[in-house]
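Figure S7 source data.
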Amino acid sequence: MTTVEEASYALSKIVDAGSQKSVIDLGWIKNVRITSPRSIITLALPSYANSQRDRIVKEVREILLNFNDIDDVQIELDNSSPEATSSEANTPQLQDIKGIKKIIAVSSGKGGVGKSTIAVNLACSLSKLGLRTGLLDADIYGPNTPSMLGVSEENPKVHGSGNEQRLIPIEKHGISIVSMGFLIEEGQPVIWRGPMLNSIIRQFLYQVEWNNLDFLVIDLPPGTGDAQISLAQSVPIAGAIIVTTPQKVSLQDSRRGLAMFKQLGVPLLGVVENMSVFIPPDQPNKKYEIFGNGGGELLAYENNLPLLAKIPIEMPVVTESNLGVPISISEPNAKSSIKFQELAILVKSKYLS
Ligand code: ADP
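Tokens for the predicted adenosine-5'-diphosphate complex:
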């Protein structure tokens, strides 16, 4: 007669499409009971895995019916677990991404403050330090890093099939790049919400052939929506960087973003103030505070965080980026490039010393 151990072992071959972990190890299938010819299992899927339910149920049936003495499979649904139980809901299970040492998330309270510019240039500057670096553009609402890096025409290859499918990052400027922009046609609105968004983000994180990276820099969408929460609850973010501008009056969004990370228990690395001063190209020794001053300092001070960098406004940041080359690569001696390099050194020394 088939034993519970034999049945559980066979069922452990079923894996979560995202993390590739066994559904038995994840606790998604439990209470395996065999009284041949009957078998009963309990299926306890977290909400982000609901989209996998039909496949898992089908595989459970196939596996159990394969035993000679089993001809009936009953599946009980346990909607209260694993994430719905209150203690676990507060401590979501973080899953490492294979092949990645440290994850740095770059975030901002609102769009247009230069979050993607910081993420791209930080990734390039880490790579210039000889570190293996990846960039994940998770800004599903405006994935613009492919054009900043000159790879918007690229189509990443996919290896394997079914659950084994893996996206191969595009290599450019010394970094491995994966972007939502590769999957979305330019100019198309993105209307993914809730569970669908969750599963797409998880796929993005776990079904990529990252090649032993020291750092993965994630460019998050702006604000405090589903995508940030889903990410923060899925992967162990080593540190989040909050990008803001110097205007004190518009700090409200940044405060909200920062509070969200605190609430989710994500460690905060610090604040980067972008567009601090304008440096005219024809008068590099002049500085104009066109967006005021003090916003970055104030946000950092209020939250007892370091102000990691103040990046000036320089025209080549825009012009070079429009040509697909980040300033830290095209003009390594520009003032902002030097600031990006210092930021990269700081990140390296904090996490890899
Ligand atoms: P976000 O990701 O926050 O929406 P982006 O990084 O896309 O912002 O930047 C918005 C625009 O501002 C882009 O055109 C970018 O080139 C420009 N920009 C960002 N930072 C700077 C800077 N330090 N100097 C000049 N232009 C900048």
